[in-house]
Amino acid sequence: MIILLIGKNGQLSSVLNKELSIMHKVFAVDRYRLCLSKITSLEKFIDQAKPDLIINTAAYNQVDQAEIEKDLAFEINALLPKFLSSKSQSLGIPIIHISTNYIFDGSKNSPYEEEDQANPLSVYGKTKWLGEEFVRNNPKHFILRTSWLFSSHSPSFLLTMLKLAHEKHTINIVSDQWGSPTSTKTLVGAIQEILNRLLYKKSPEIYGTYHVACNGKTNWYDYSIKILSVLESMGIKTLLKTDQVIPISHVDYYQKACRPNYSVLATMKYKNIFQSKLPDWDLEVERTILESSIRCFNSKLN
């Protein structure tokens, strides 16, 4: 299969590019091609690549900065998906688009189903929701909503905490916002499941919106405690200890953008249709920290 991957060096796209290139021919597009001023160049690139599938991982995901750079967030999160949806539809090929739990307002207080009403609170959430709506114009679409994405090599809450653990003696962490930390490995696995269906089963009924997130839920405070506990169990010495992490309310932690207090995603639709399991978030955190430690150790040896 020939795949056009929109995004190349991001947290998800870098892993996806590496994994998909084993079995498929992947053309990954750098960020510099993604501005609308270069859309003609991007369209020409797509026509030359002749893809069987487009995967859009590109996003303006700096949630607070999006409140300032609204036009740029709108361009990347909404207008780019609009173009990609239109182009993929004209080519008669599917599109996979990555979205977010931040399209919900958090008022439900139970896991969000795919059909629940969107009501984003931030510019980031609003532009991502618009992007979803544009992608739906192509009937052959997969929209994968995920949450609190992390990996061992790209900016995320996990890596921020690993860094702060060696720099801070005390820290305040929000304890009343809930979600499901999700590893890039988990999301990449879901995308590979979709590719397998497209390649071997050709099931048009599987098109649609899916929630893909690790099992379980946590808040930012408990998430940070888990990270520090894993480091302790591995014998890694840190300045920051678990009893020095102070739980606070989100109202006491100023952020430009509003975030949902509860944005846990229900994933049964994905599990049932693809007959696939998803890992527990805490086990993925353990695996990722171990992976990060091994990478750090190997880099010191070299």
Explain the layout of strands and helices.
Elements: E1 2-6, H1 11-20, E2 25-29, H2 39-49, E3 53-56, H3 70-91, E4 95-100, H4 123-135, E5 141-146, E6 149-150, H5 157-164, E7 171-174, E8 178-179, E9 182-183, H6 184-200, E10 208-211, E11 218-219, H7 220-233, E12 245-248, H8 268-274, H9 281-301
Parallel strand pairs: 1-2, 1-3, 3-4, 4-5, 5-10, 6-9, 7-12
Antiparallel strand pairs: 8-11
**Unreliable stretches covering 5 or more consecutive residues:** none
Q: What's the CATH class of the domain at 2-154 and 182-217 and 259-280, please?
A: Alpha Beta
Indicate the proportion of strand residues.
15-25%
Tally the beta strands: 12
Straight-line distance between termini = 36 Å
State the CATH architecture of the domain at 2-154 and 182-217 and 259-280: 3-Layer(aba) Sandwich
Relevant CATH superfamily of the domain at 2-154 and 182-217 and 259-280: NAD(P)-binding Rossmann-like Domain
Short description:
By secondary structure, the protein is an alpha/beta fold. 41% of the residues lie in helices and 15% in strands.
